[in-house]
């Protein structure tokens, strides 16, 4: 039968402290002035790279290596941390939704049939991120769903858009809005009353995460549900074009707006009897809105009016909380994660990051599961992030504090594994501010140093890696790798990349003879879990992706 017990590693000892450091958004790319990691002073990461050649390598962090549909899909934190923690590759939300739409299965399952009850007499609202980034959502999936729902009886449809500029180029929201408008016009020509009803920039409206700032969700609620916003327009394209003219405006932070009819009334507030679908497949930035839409008892902000709706998520965003109750596509079932195994084998675990990445080393790492496996053996520490600012203003973020807390956890002797996410490269990289991202990379490197110093003191082992690329490339490039110019200027890349990420192992506790194998050249993030289990003195379960290390005598 099944057992949580892991076999002892034939050669590697137990009870060595292992520090698992994940640099968020830290890929490997050629030296270049838009490679902020290269430009920044990063002596610690440089020394790992230039140290023992068989203690440093690259691993794949994008595309099929992390369960995404194609090799053109950049990596992201959800799929990256899922792979790191689970040690196996699961088909992820993006792919599961593609499959369900292609097979038509999405229209047969419970979730769609539940919202369909509203089609005859009420409105179907679709709320989500409007881009082709493929990280949280994809516009082509929304287009398919619009058509599929109208073919199955939806007569009145309202779309509530969130503009991106974070997983895609800033400014691209105009084109996406035009594409969406054309789709809605074609539905209207078939007699379906389909329109955009509201909108706003994803970082200012709706898509907060880990409860960093509920005001963000409230702004969305007011526009989407109540039909109230400071800006009113006749069309989404006009809205975005106009709001983008404000100085410093960008897609990520556009203010909330509603679309109004000729008499000035909002075209799509949510009312009793309506159906609502949040079309993002990724969980972290949808669970707060999902709570507001679903929970009867709710005290995070004043909802003013709580319509009785049929609500479904594109996916279920939290399996533990069963949030939401109804969903169109079943999420990947990520079971038997390395964290759960290790805890069952007595490994005492500490996990830490600041708010904006806290769920990454806990929830995502543990297979999209909230809370502890065993609170006696685990401690998760969240350092509050600055809220209400863009991180280029504070590019050091809480790296130092994460470093200090983790150092203290290591020196306390109370843990066998410490696991951290250092967010700077990613969070500042997403702002597109190249200078600030250089500062961010330096700060991340300093945090790594603090942790490695503590590992040194206690005779432990370190594993330093990253979840996907971001800060190592800040411009859009052609196939040859040259920056693409538009009106004589480079286009700043705020998104993640397709680059591989480094992984380094070392520390005084690393047994002599441990080195990276040469026979896993296409190794990816999913190979890290078995590697870490080995470093804790265990053999990984058989169905885990193979370890990256071997022990030579
Ligand atoms: C975000 O949600 O901030 C971006 O879309 C993706 O960033 P992450 O995958 O690094 O969290
Ligand atoms: Co990111």
Mean pLDDT score, rounded?
98
What is the number of helices?
Answer: 16
- Total number of domains: 2
List the ions, cofactors and other small molecules found in this model.
3-phosphoglyceric acid, cobalt (II) ion
Characterise this structure:
The active site is at 77 (phosphoserine intermediate). Pathway: Carbohydrate degradation; glycolysis; pyruvate from D-glyceraldehyde 3-phosphate: step 3/5. Its EC number is 5.4.2.12. By secondary structure, this protein is of the alpha/beta class. The chain folds into two domains: 18-91 and 334-544, Alkaline Phosphatase, subunit A (3-Layer(aba) Sandwich), CATH 3.40.720; 94-329, 2,3-Bisphosphoglycerate-independent phosphoglycerate mutase, substrate-binding domain, CATH 3.40.1450.10. The protein contains 16 helices and 19 strands. The chain has helices spanning 36-39, 43-49, 77-86, 93-103, 110-116, 139-151, 173-189, 214-226, 236-243, 287-294, 338-344, 355-364, 399-411, 424-429, 434-458, 528-535, and strands spanning 18-23, 56-59, 123-130, 156-163, 193-201, 231-233, 257-259, 275-278, 310-315, 327-329, 349-354, 378-383, 417-422, 461-466, 485-486, 489-490, 501-506, 514-516, 549-551. Helix 10 (287-294) links the parallel strand 8 and strand 9. Helix 7 (173-189) packs antiparallel against helix 9 (236-243). The longest helix is centred in the last third of the chain and has 25 residues, at 434-458. The two termini are 34 Å apart. The mean pLDDT is 98. Cobalt (II) ion binds next to loops. 3-phosphoglyceric acid is lined by residues 24-25, 76-78, 135-136, 166-167, 285, 426, 430.
């Amino acid at each position: 039968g099944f057992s949580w017990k892991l076999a002892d590693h034939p050669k590697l000892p137990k009870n060595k402290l292992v520090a698992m450091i994940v640099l968020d958004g830290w890929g490997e790319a050629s030296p270049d002035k838009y490679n902020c990691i290269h430009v920044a002073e990063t002596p610690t990461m440089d020394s790992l790279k230039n140290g023992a050649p068989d203690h440093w390598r690259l691993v794949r962090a994008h595309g099929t290596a992390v369960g995404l549909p194609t090799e053109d899909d950049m990596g992201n934190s959800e799929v990256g941390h899922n792979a790191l923690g689970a040690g196996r590759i699961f088909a992820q939300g993006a792919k599961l939704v593609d499959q369900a739409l292609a097979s038509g299965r999405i229209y047969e399952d419970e979730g769609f049939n539940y919202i369909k009850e509203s089609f005859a007499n009420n409105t179907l609202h679709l709320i989500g991120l409007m881009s082709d980034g493929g990280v949280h959502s994809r516009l082509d999936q929304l287009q398919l769903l619009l058509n599929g729902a109208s073919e199955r009886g939806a007569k009145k449809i309202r779309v509530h858009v969130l503009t991106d500029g974070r997983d895609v180029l800033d400014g691209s929201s105009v084109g996406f809005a035009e594409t969406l408008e054309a789709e809605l016009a074609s539905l209207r020509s078939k007699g379906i009353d389909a329109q955009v009803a509201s909108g706003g920039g994803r970082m200012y409206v709706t898509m907060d995460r880990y409860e960093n700032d509920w005001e963000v969700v409230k702004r969305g609620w007011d526009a989407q549900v109540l039909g109230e916003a400071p800006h009113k327009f006749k069309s989404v394209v006009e809205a975005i074009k106009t709001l983008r003219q404000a100085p410093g405006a960008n897609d990520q932070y556009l203010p909330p707006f509603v679309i109004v009819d000729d008499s000035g009334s909002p075209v799509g507030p949510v009312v009793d009897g309506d159906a609502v679908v949040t079309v993002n497949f990724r969980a972290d930035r949808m669970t707060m809105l999902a709570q507001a839409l679903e929970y009867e008892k709710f005290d995070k902000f004043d909802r003013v009016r709580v319509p009785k709706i049929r609500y479904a998520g594109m996916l279920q965003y939290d399996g533990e909380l069963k949030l939401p109750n109804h969903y169109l596509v079943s999420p990947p079932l990520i079971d038997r994660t390395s964290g759960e195994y290790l805890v069952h084998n007595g490994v005492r675990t500490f996990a830490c990051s600041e708010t904006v990445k806290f769920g990454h080393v806990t929830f995502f790492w543990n297979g999209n599961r909230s809370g502890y496996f065993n609170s006696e053996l685990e401690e998760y520490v969240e350092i509050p992030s600055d809220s209400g600012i863009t991180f280029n203003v504070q590019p050091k973020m809480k790296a130092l504090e994460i470093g200090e807390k983790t150092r203290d956890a290591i020196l306390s002797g109370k843990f066998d594994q410490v696991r951290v996410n250092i967010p700077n490269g990613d969070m500042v990289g997403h702002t597109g501010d190249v200078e600030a991202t250089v500062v961010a990379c330096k700060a991340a490197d300093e945090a790594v140093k603090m942790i490695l110093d503590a590992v040194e003191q206690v005779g432990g082992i370190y594993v330093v890696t990253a979840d996907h690329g971001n800060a190592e490339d800040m411009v859009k490039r052609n196939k040859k790798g040259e920056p693409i110019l538009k009106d004589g200027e480079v286009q700043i890349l705020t998104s993640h990349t397709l680059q591989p990420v480094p992984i380094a192992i070392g520390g005084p506790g690393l047994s002599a003879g441990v080195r990276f194998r040469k026979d896993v050249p296409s190794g990816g993030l999913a190979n890290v879990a078995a590697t870490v289990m080995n470093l804790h003195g265990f053999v990984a379960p058989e169905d885990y992706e193979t370890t990256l290390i071997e022990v030579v005598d």
